[in-house]
Write a structure and sequence with these properties.
The complex is a heterotrimer of chains A (157), B (320) and C (498). Chain A folds into two domains: 64 residues; 64 residues, no CATH class. With 157 residues, chain A is mainly α. The longest helix of chain A has 27 residues. Helix content of chain A is 69%, strand content 0%. Chain B has two domains: 191 residues, D-Maltodextrin-Binding Protein, domain 2, CATH 3.40.190.150; 117 residues, Periplasmic binding protein-like II (D-Maltodextrin-Binding Protein, domain 2), CATH 3.40.190. In chain B, strands 1, 2, 3, 4, 5, 6, 7, 8, 9 and 10 form a ten-stranded mixed β-sheet that branches. Chain B starts with a helix and ends with a helix. Chain C is an all-alpha fold and 498 residues long. Chain C has one domain. Chain C is 75% helix and 1% strand. Chain C contains 22 helices and two strands. A two-stranded antiparallel ribbon of chain C has the order 1-2. Classes of the chains: A mainly alpha (157), B alpha/beta (320), C mainly alpha (498). Chain A: Keywords: Membrane, Transmembrane, Transmembrane helix.
Chain lengths: 157, 320, 498
Amino acid sequence: MIQNARADIVAGLLICAVGSIIVIYAYGNYPMGTLRRMGPGMFPAGLGAVLSLLGMVLALNSWRSLQANASHDWPPVQFELRTVGLTVAGVVAFAVLLRPMGLIPAVIAVVSISALSDARNKPLGIAVLALILVVLATVIFKFGLGLSFSLIAWNWS
Amino acid sequence: MKTKLFALAGAAFIALGGSAFAQSYPSGNIDYIVPYPPGGGTDVLARQLNDQIARSTGWNFVILNQPGAGGTIGMDQLSRADGDGQTIGMGQTSNLAVNPALNPEVQYDPLADFTPIALVNTQPMGIITHNDSPFADFAAVLEAVRAEPGSVLYGTPGTGTVSHMSIERLMAQDDLVFEHVPYTGIAQAISDVMGGVVDIYVGSLPSVMQHVEAGNVRLLAVTSAQPHPLVPDVPTVASLGFDGYLAEDWKAVVGPAGMPEDAVAALNQAVNDALAEPELRAALEAQGSVVLGGTAEEFRAFLADEVAAWANVVDAAGLR
Amino acid sequence: MTFFDNILLGLETALSLNNLMWCFVGVFMGTLLGVIPGIGVLAAISMLFPLTFQLEPTAALIMLAGIWYGTTYGGSTASILLNVPGTPSSAITALDGYPMAQQGRAGVALLMTTFASFFGGSVGIILLMGFSGTISQMALQFSSTEYFALMLLGLIAASGMSNGAMIKGLIMVCLGVLFGLVGSDIYSGARRFTFGLVELADGIALVALALGLFGISEVIASVGKISAKGVDPDAVRFKAMKPTRDDMRRSWFPMLRGSAVGSFFGTLPGTGPSIAAFMSYALERRVAKEPERFGKGAIEGIMGPESANNAADQTAFIPTLALGIPGSATMALMLGALMIHGIAPGPQLMSEQPALFWGLVMSFWIGNLLLLVLNIPLIGLWVRLLTVPYQWLFPAVLMFVCIGTYSVNNSGFDVLLVAFFGILGYVLRYLSFPAAPMILGFVLGPLMEEHFRRAMLLGRGDPMTFLQRPISASVLFITLCLLIWGVYSAMRKRSAGS
């Protein structure tokens, strides 16, 4: 991937912020203990501090190289928001549906939702693909490996 | 045969919702929740016991491993299952007595949310030290701790385990101060106790016995009420001036609350019959277990005692 | 002399028709299962564990061992073809194996991986048979202080292993450690960063992190970009699997160095194959004349780590057999299998059950050979997978990722985590942060904290304990040199650039 100074400044500052939040959260929620018998907060707090330091260094370095060079562009790669959304939605749908409704609806959900992210997939193709994968998943995981989930259920509780 | 049994798992799962408790127990497969992964001590015991029961009764058990959070995720699931006797599971000291007192996150009440069915077996903890240790016996360890509190480092397989709680119980009973060095499991701990990095190590008797037999470490004491049949000459902690002291890892069959009495009776009978089989008994004893069995009422009373005792230890140690 | 007796006894046991068959069944099923994203060694062994109840103990163990390396190999296969690693060591294999596959050299990568595994495994076995006594005494010298120093070295080395800036690698290592800290604190039992979710009490599942970070983000980045993964049908013929003379020439030294690195780390309980693979990769990149080839399909980048990881798998048996200490969760599970059959696993296993023990060791060797034989026809089949149009392939990959992740802990929550790490992985990729150091940070982070705190506890709170012990002091010195070197070369690059 392309190194980009401007994106790195943002990332560095973000990391620095995350590190600081960790320090504050660990300090506020977990006992620090002593050097000899450290509490649960000591290590995360130290780690957060290191992280925000590193983030700072990254941001500073990138700022300096931005001054030196004239590359002012953002990364030329496009952020694929639609693909991210559909892929993640498919996985989440699987996670949510598997226990209450069983393997078959869950597989259909993950396959058909995520398949939409590729424009070349048409509804009929997706249906056929989902059917094939349902059979495949059932044969491999249910009958082959005997995993303990139901194929179809109605069990919302 | 095993694969077939697994293939039926799904059918049982679906049937679970709809099936009412019929006159004869059980109606179909019995789902059996093991709150640990396959191959662990609890899983192995459950499979051995269920194989024996299945052989004599023809019942079909479907083992569902639900690991997580020291066995409390599986027990939580069991506590929420239908109390029709078609879902039961295996619990033990840590997830039925210690953890509910220790962790505020544990949702279930071990006494109200489960139906006790039968105790299965129990294993004491063994306290070991390295061969060149200055401690000749456990009395010497106690002396050292009394002379200089905090001078003895003890390793355990983890915080909140029966091993850890066994020393906490000792400390609660007589104002002693030991220094705890928790490990994650036995591997690194054994290496450290052999090298004298920690003074003593507390672990379940079977887990330390192999190292004792190999001559790598010495066994100082056991935490059961009576001397253990495998090592009859090793003193119990109770015999060293700690009346009523007991810290054991017992395992038991339990079901969700509100199970029909005839189901409990049938299951209890089946467990006791299985434990009476010489083959299973011998296998369990070879692993360092004391076989228990007994009625469901005895188990209920025992569970109430244990829950109260460990809650006391947790309070006294300020661990919650 | 006993050395050869043991080998003979082992061969006799392992080559009996019955055991050979179970070895084959294990390797075969392991390979098939391992190819499914998310199904790692532990998950595969857990799933097939009940099948071994009916077997006699030696056959059961041999089959489990077969499943073990079959799955490991299957995992590498999936990582090379689709970039969906489920374990740290296959994440390393994917770094250069996946680019090779994209260049149409998947067959070569898969075949050479098999060679590297066999080579590393063989070195490990020889050490196991010849020097286990000496090596286990060495392992006893390692306490928490030394472990901490070694892990720090591993993490610093890992942060310099990608082509980008070292600082980004360091940041990723720290983020990985941070995710590793989620869950119950082993000292106090306090739940850290779990936000009241019981599902996080045992921490974040490794599979969920790995599959999200690599697999899902790879899918997101590839959708709509590639049609069929640039594989011409000729690539599936056997001829296309044949490595070039150049490939062979480049492979010998990485395999030797990898085996040495792997053998060392394998003997230390708990660290094992994953740190070995990372160290080997970092080492190869450091000694290479053109380090910029790494990450773009350098064969050294798969040969070193693959042999390291297999050598470590074998030498992990050394503490197990000499001291009765299981070196990994997988090892503990296999020893658990013995208990079912009424055999107490432990230091006396070797003397009390020599046929079982040496049969198992030799079956490793035979199993690795079987793997080689089995996979030559299978490689063609796997590579053919890449000729499936990507718009159909990726929903299938996602489905397998979901089911595979779920099956590890029967947990829908873990699948949600996959989605979370998928987004994170894509964002980090977009900002060109390397993902591999994060996974090592994740694995080693909690161990590092554990050992650091224990070392401080045993050292009565004095940080000097790390410098007073010779082994840890020298390891820390090496780590410092690496860091200084990293900073120095970064500065030189900048001054050369401006």
